[in-house]
Amino acid sequence: MTTLEDIHLPQHVAIIMDGNNRFAKKNHLPKGDGHKEGKTILDPIVEYCRKVGVQALTVFAFSSENWKRPQAEVDLLMFLLEQTIHEQIPRMIKFEISLRFIGDRSCLSPHLQALFAEAEERTAHFTKMTLSIAISYGGHWDIADSAKRIAQDVLNKKVSVDQIDADLFGQYISLGNLPPVDLLIRTGGDYRISNFLLWQLAYAELYFTKVLWPEFTVQELQKAFDVFSERERRFGKTSEQIQQDKIEN
To answer: What is the pTM of this model?
Structure first.
């Protein structure tokens, strides 16, 4: 495995944390225990990203579609989410990480909404890294919500129709003030992005692993970084142009 000095790190990493239920089944555990195990995995991943200089980490914890799951599982996930926030606030302060949440908060309880706001307010001034947790989130919702807010600003004469372009839209989308996602990691063995960060993933490198989320380690994350470092990111240019840019810069 290459060392950190040898690789080019992504600025913004997104992770679809998949495989909790399959982990429980594989290990003959009650279904909810997979989610409990998965909750503990995030801490070392966050710390490692902070240590090596990743600017932003965004994780998919609960999708818009996950509301369709059995009510007992949803209730457990909401309980674990509340636990996670209480645990993460002092950790974010310790490591000077800004914590934020993206998704449709109207679906959440008033208590959780207030907890989100408190966590964001207490960590908003930190600049070492941003940890974003996607809850009740879907890429379709994100794009539609952004379009709705742009339309409202047009009605209020804050924005003109002629001003609307990709750059302006990107200012309204979730995470619009962060670097674009460079690397998307999905654990659990499925090869899809599941309505996650559709706008923000436009030029992201995709990395899929069969490792289940509760088994995902810092070493597995390093493997993903190694693969990312080896990929040539052209953004529409040719390989020759990319090499020339490197020489000139």
So the answer is: 0.90
